[in-house]
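User: Predict structure, ligand magnesium ion.
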Amino acid sequence: MPGLDGNLIRQRLADATLYLCTPNRPDLAEFADAALAGGVDIIQLRDKSLEAKQELDALEILAEAAERHGKLFAVNDRADIAHAVQADVLHLGQDDLPVPLARKILGDDVVIGRSTHDVDQMRAAADEPGVDYFCTGPCWPTPTKPGRPAPGLDLVRATKSARPWFAIGGIDLTNLHEVKAAGATRVVVVRAITDAEDPRKAAESFKVELSS
Ligand SMILES: Cc1ncc(COP(=O)(O)OP(=O)(O)O)c(N)n1
Ligand SMILES: Cc1ncsc1CCOP(=O)(O)O
Ligand SMILES: [Mg+2]
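Assistant: Predicted complex:
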C-alpha cells in the first residue's frame, strides 16, 4: 500500500485537534475504529513493551483503521519502523533520534513531531527545520509517563507558534477547559480515551469541547 502524499498528510495535520496515543491491546482494531469514528485525528502506537514484529503487526492494524477513516497514523520513536510501514507521522522526544537523521531516513513526505518540556525546548521546536508539529507538557503529572516532571499549564500559556502544537499530559474531559483557557486548541491524550468505557463517545466529547 503506497503511503499518503506529503501535502495531504500536512493538510490533515493542519486540521487535527485530537491526537491519541495507545498501547497495543487485544481489541486494537475495534478500539481504533471506535476512537477514529469518534473524531480522533491522529492515532499513535505507543508501547515500549513490543518486539519489532508485534509492533509491525499492531501498526498494520492502525494504518488500516486510519485509512478507513481518512485519518493519520503515527509511529513513536523509531524512524526505521516508520519508514518500513510508510507511516504518516513519526513522533520524536528529546532523547530520541535527532530530527535531521530521521528526515534522512524518511524524506519529506512524512510529518515529524517533537516533544517539549520547557520554554527553551518549545522555542527550539517552533523553529527547528524538519519539525512539523510539537507537543508541550505534561500539563499534569501522569502515570502514563512516570518520572517526567510536569511544567504544567505555564508552558502552555508560554507557547506561541505558527506550527501546529498540542498540549499533553493528564488531560481529560474534566480539565480540558483549563487547557483551552491556557491557549491550547489541540491536545494529545492517552488514558482519557484508552481507559474510557465508550472510547467513541469519549472522543466525540473531546471534539465537541475542542471545537467550541
Ligand atoms: C504525540 C506525542 N507527544 C509526546 C510524546 C512523548 O514522547 P517522548 O517524550 O519521547 O516519550 P515516549 O512517548 O517515547 O515515552 C509522544 N509519544 N507522542
Ligand atoms: C507520553 C507522554 N509524554 C508526556 S505526558 C505523556 C503521557 C500522557 O498520558 P495521559 O493522557 O494518560 O496522561
Ligand atoms: Mg520517545
